[in-house]
Amino acid sequence: TLSKKVMIVSPSVLSCDFGNIQRDTEMLDQSQADWLHIDVMDGVFVPNISFGFPVLEAVRKHTSKVLDVHLMVQDCSPYIETFKKAGADWLTVHYEACTHLHRTLTQIRDCGMKAGIALNPHTPISVIVPLVSEVDLVLIMSVNPGFGGQKFIPNAINRVQELAQLREKTNASFLIEVDGGVTMDNAQALKSAGADALVAGSFVFQSPQPSATITALKNC
Length: 220
Fold this sequence. Notes:
By secondary structure, the chain is an alpha/beta fold. Helix content is 34%, strand content 20%. The protein is built from eight helices and eight strands. An eight-stranded parallel sheet has the order 1-8-7-6-5-4-3-2. Helix 5 packs parallel to helix 6 (184-193). It is globular.
């Protein structure tokens, strides 16, 4: 039954203390987090620049958990193999940023990673219909991508529901992940709508006890 489902929690490293990235990664490694979410931004696709391969490699050294890498970059094709070498397990690309999305997903899977598609808040769910069998994860952005700490867009709950219905109808098996403004206020509704994984950044790292916050999200 639905109530038995345990949420996958993927805390966003973008919200950690970069002066203490090893300490924060080790904290996440010892917590009940399932994955670590790594946001890579290029300043072109989104109006912000985050971090690249050296930071990903540094995080990889200090955790054995799944690295869930979310690319907010204009053209990721040249870098796919490098992400694998740097330690990515899941690689999610934006529908809006990939001209040849099918080819990109194939490249990701051929490198031995799980492939994800991210959808911005304004992108219709229906765009992924031709790709349901090629994708391991669909990431619903519940904020406009580019910055941490933004307010949750409530319509994301309806979008998760629509995506879950599409998954059932097409007999697909991709996971549904939600990223942006996730807190205990909306986690339960997202879970009920069909979400399998929640990304949480500032909500985890700005809480008095990040580990306890992760556990609470996991059991939402």
